[in-house]
């Protein structure tokens, strides 16, 4: 059985590894000439760690990662609104959240692919769901399965579902950065102000990963540069945020407007094509589940794809779950966008009360997300095949 994976991001690579382990001959098509992961760091939560464990990648991910440790949400002045501990998360879910560079995670997944499976610098221009034919700038390829992991602006999604409205602007722009860690003690926090948020997560070594957001119209840019803009917005917030902003190199700051697929797709498959990750259910980063859900998708798809009616079963398994997570992430994002002082005060008070009466308040809200475990797939119907460089090409 031959599979073509469109997109060399985290979801696409996880799918390629998972399919290979189930005996598929896999080719990954990535239009970039070099794999340069979009973003800076990534938090891999318990559900995604179990997904990676199922393809024997979990241990490799944990080695270069930083365990998130105690975490929570604070006000801009540093007062805790809700918090939890690493020990409590581990006891509840059997694993904690680990944080590492996206480039490191991508490298681990690439190393698990057969030689020749990844084709860089190959742009996909058309997909035929009926025949499983993928047209690239180098010719045509055909397969029994096409996995569309081609991102939030997916060409495949637009081809399969042309009437779908596509991603909607979430109302915020976001910055991501990796900087030198300040020489003070701090843990993983997300701090909320009026329409603003700033997240801080230590990485292994002497680095720290941060993200920030502001409620502004789409398409904006900072006239004085992104570092100056971040210092203007967050320079007087609690430690270690000011120190981090002093340390960061301007070139290390990424800025992107945030979009999500607020209207669910009618299905995550059509013909021989399956969509996963942002192509299927792009979500805001407020739950930290974008990449994690893509990894879940990949494992479930690989376990079902060689079954009769497997792609329909994939839609049935993944669409309800990801639809709920997209909506919940968007709802949390709306809380961070509140600017009215009364609304902000009510939000903060509600979180303080919830945390005061239930110390596991923050974790309990995530039980159905972080408690996911990979299904045990049936054994492949076909014996594993050696990778032969992928489907043949013509043209």
UniProtKB/TrEMBL annotation:
Keywords from the UniProt entry: Monooxygenase, Oxidoreductase
Keyword Oxidoreductase included in the entry's annotation: yes
Source organism, top-level taxon: Bacteria
Positions of the FAD-binding domain: 3-328
Pfam family, one: FAD_binding_3
GO molecular function, one term: FAD binding
Region feature Disordered, mapped onto this chain: 371-395
InterPro entries on file: FAD-bd, FAD-dep_Monooxygenase_BioMet, FAD/NAD-bd_sf
Keyword set includes Disulfide bond: no
Protein name (database record): Monooxygenase
């Amino acid at each position: 059985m031959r599979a073509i994976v469109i997109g060399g991001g985290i979801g696409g690579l996880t799918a390629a590894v998972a399919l290979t382990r189930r005996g598929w001959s896999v080719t990954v098509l990535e239009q970039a000439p070099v794999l340069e992961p979009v973003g800076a760091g990534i938090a891999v939560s318990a559900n995604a760690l179990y997904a990676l464990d199922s393809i024997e990648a979990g241990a490799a991910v944990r080695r270069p990662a930083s365990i998130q440790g105690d975490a929570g949400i604070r006000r801009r002045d540093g007062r805790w609104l809700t918090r939890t501990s690493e020990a409590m998360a581990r006891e509840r879910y059997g694993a904690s959240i680990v944080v590492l560079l996206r480039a490191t995670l991508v490298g681990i997944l690439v190393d698990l692919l057969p030689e020749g499976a990844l084709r860089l610098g190959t742009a996909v221009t058309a997909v035929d769901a009926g025949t499983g034919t993928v047209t690239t700038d180098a010719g045509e390829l055909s397969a029994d399965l096409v996995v569309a992991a081609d991102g939030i602006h997916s060409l495949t999604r637009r081809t399969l579902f042309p009437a779908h409205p596509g991603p909607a602007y979430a109302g915020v722009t976001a910055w991501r950065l990796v900087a030198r860690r300040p020489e003070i003690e701090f843990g993983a926090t997300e701090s909320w102000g009026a329409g603003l948020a700033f997240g801080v997560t230590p990485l292994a070594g002497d680095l720290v990963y941060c993200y920030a957001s502001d409620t502004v119209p789409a398409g904006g840019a900072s006239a004085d540069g992104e570092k100056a803009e971040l210092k203007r917005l967050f320079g007087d917030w609690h430690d270690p945020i000011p120190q981090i902003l002093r340390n960061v190199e301007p070139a290390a700051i990424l800025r992107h407007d945030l979009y999500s697929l607020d209207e669910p797709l009618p299905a995550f498959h059509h013909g021989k094509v399956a969509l996963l990750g942002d192509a299927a259910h792009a979500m805001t980063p407020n739950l930290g589940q974008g990449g994690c859900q893509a990894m879940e998708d990949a494992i479930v798809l690989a376990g079902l794809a060689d079954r009769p009616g497997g792609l329909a079963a994939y839609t049935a398994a993944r669409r309800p779950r990801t639809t709920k997570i997209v909506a919940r992430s968007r709802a949390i994002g709306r809380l961070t966008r509140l600017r009215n002082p009364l609304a902000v005060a009510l939000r903060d008070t509600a979180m303080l009360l919830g945390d005061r009466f239930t110390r596991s308040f923050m974790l309990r809200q995530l039980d159905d997300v972080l408690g996911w475990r990979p299904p045990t797939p049936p054994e492949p119907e076909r014996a594993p095949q050696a990778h032969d460089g992928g489907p043949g090409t013509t043209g």
